[in-house]
Structures are given as structure tokens and as C-alpha cells.
Amino acid sequence: MNLLLRNALVLDVVSGEYSEGDLRCADGRVVEAGPGLRAPSGVRVIDVAGGYVVPGLIDAHVHVTALTADLGALGAMSPSYVAAHSARIMGEMLGRGFTTVRDVSGADHGLADAQAEGLIRGPRLLFCGKGLSQTGGHADFRGRGEHLSDDHPCCAGVGRVADGVDAVRVAARDELRKGAHHIKVMASGGVASPTDRIDSTQYSMEELRAVVEEARAANRYVAAHAYTARAVNRALEAGVRSIEHGNLIDDHSVELFREHDAFLVPTLVTYWALKEEGRAFGLPEASWRKVDEVLEAGLVALERAARGGVRLAYGTDLLGGMHRHQNHEFRLRREVQEPIAVLRAATVGAAELAGMAGEIGTLEVGAHADLLVLDGDPLEDIGVLADPKHLRHVIQAGVVS
């Protein structure tokens, strides 16, 4: 698709400055920017009349297969049924301005290929397959009275159980075999799992290092679910590239993030949504009672990380009917960060984490033509990003959605 946007205010998210002019896209890429560009024949021209143009948003922590907040129920569902829901969820994400998402357990090569081939409408999908969990860990959804485990290797579900260095190597290699962009490990307890404590650490250092070694061998990286400083610090010392959540980090965590050039992906909105609506969308009562342990700590952790110079990416981690709150993360982060810092996390920051700097999250010539036209200035009012009603156009790969 060839497209020319005229009379735009184009944001450079690195400098935080706007430039007035035109932006031309061809073959899915940004090919030219500047004032008074010529429109070649056959190019669609849209006069945005002073509209604000920013890169397409990137959500670095989603679960597109999470049609319910009861994640343990997914494994017993028909894969075709889950895929149908995932297509709906992805289409709605694109409609909210997210042109790329990083799925951190649940999505697979089938969904990614379907999106890339245009079979389903949605963001570009960076997937990890199934997250790795120890027995009794954050992706082991058996209750205390259940013994048998079936990880449904070919079917829906967000995790697989693997114990011991050899087993986690095999599991990591298997997800990489299926095309994983990254590997997800559960390095602490969590809200959605029935038998672990949030303050637990999970996987030995030897197991964590084995997963990191396998990912690096394939030129990929590891993302770790972790809440407490103890769990976060162990994961960082093992070589994990991104920490998901990190609500209870300490000052030493900040030092380790900088030392290892790692990323923090806070997911503030999910705790807000789970507290408000979690039970209505399938979150078990025992999990709902865990939310308070991490809800208030999230903003404090974000402020500590931002002040300490930690690299940040935007994430939401929403489940079930709560996906619709995806943009509310902008408003929550604004409580401790300036709008440009939050927008950078959802563009250049997330692109760097995903290993796609210069490809997405930017409007530089040569980048994928993923961009949004807004009816207001998001640097003056974060509500422009927090409320999708301000989206005039969502453009992905040069195509107006």
C-alpha cells in the first residue's frame, strides 16, 4: 500500500519534538518525510490537517489467547475455539492503536503466521509459545488435590512444566524449534496460579542459567515473570533480559538492571482491572485475594526504576474481558512519569527490548509504516493515548486499518 499523509505534526519520540510536514509510505515502509512531498501516481493521499502522528504502539506484555482470567481453564478448551477468540482480541488491540504486541505465553506460530498472512486482523505478533514453569510454579494450574498433569503440547494453554536442568533445556529448545521470538520463565509465584506464594522464588539458578544459555545460543532472549526483589535479582544475575511485573524491586534490583542492561516491563493496569473486575471474568477467588499484595507496590516500583535509569517497556497483562483497558496503562504511569517517557516505553523502548530497534516504534525512514494519527497532542494530555476515541487513523504496514 502506498500512502502519503499531508500536513502532519510528526513526533520524533527520541527527541520529543514535532516536525511539520508530510510522510510517505510505500511497500509497508516509511520512505520519505518532509514538507511538500510529491505524491506519485496511484498513491492514496490523506490530509490530516495538523493531526498529531506518532509511531504505532507496542504492548510488550500481552496474552492474546487469554479469553478468560481463569488461565488454568485454557488447556481444556478446543484450540480452534481459543484461536477464534484470539483473532477477536487481536483485532480489538489493533483498533486501540497497538500495531505490534509481544505475547509472553499462550500465542504460537499459528497465530503469528495467520496475522502475517492477513488471515486475521491484528498487531504484529512476537510470541514465546508456552512459558516454562517448575512443578507447583506459576504455570502449574493443578489444585492441591490434583495429581495428573497434561501440558497439552499441541493445544491451548499458557505454560508447560519442566523440572531440572536437562528438562528445561529440552523445553526451551522445543519452543525455539517452533519459532519463539523469546523464552518465558516463571521465576516467582504469581496471582493466577493456585498453589504458589507471590513471595516465592522459582527455578534454581542452574535451571535459569540453562534457559538463558539456550536462548542466547539461538540469538534469542529470556523474559522472566518475577515480583519480589529476591526473585528479580536472581533472574537478572542469571542473565534474563526482561523482568515482567517487578512490583517489589529494591535499590539493588535497579543496580542489577543497569549492570545487565536489562528491561523492566511493569503491568500496572492488570492489578487495577483484576481488583475491579477479575472475579466477573473468571479469576478464582483465591487468586483475587492475592492482588492486594502487588497492587499498591507497582507505582512505587515504576518510580524507583525510572528514577534509577532502568530501561522500561510498556506492558498490560490483561485477561478476559479486561483487555479493553489496555490504553489505561498510559494514565496510570502518568502518575509518576512524564507523557513522553510513557510513550517512549510503548515505542522505542519496547522495540529495543524486542530486538527490533529502527524497525518498529519509530517513524524513521526505513521503518515499518506503523503509525497513528491523533486528534490531540499526547505530550500535553496523556488522555489522548489513554482513550482510543482520539485515534483518527490506525495505519499498519502502510495500510489504513
TrEMBL record:
Record bears the keyword Acetylation: no
GO MF term set? hydrolase activity, acting on carbon-nitrogen (but not peptide) bonds
Domain Amidohydrolase-related stretches: 52-398
SUPFAM superfamilies recorded for this chain? Answer: Composite domain of metallo-dependent hydrolases, Metallo-dependent hydrolases
Entry keyword annotation includes Hydrolase: yes
* Alphabetical UniProt keywords: Hydrolase
| InterPro entries xref list | Amidohydro-rel, Metal-dep_hydrolase_composite, Metal_Hydrolase, Metallo-dep_Hydrolase, OTAase-like
Question: Could you list the residue ranges that cross the membrane?
Answer: none
The name under which this protein is listed is Amidohydrolase family protein
Q: What is the originating organism of this protein? A: Nonomuraea turkmeniaca
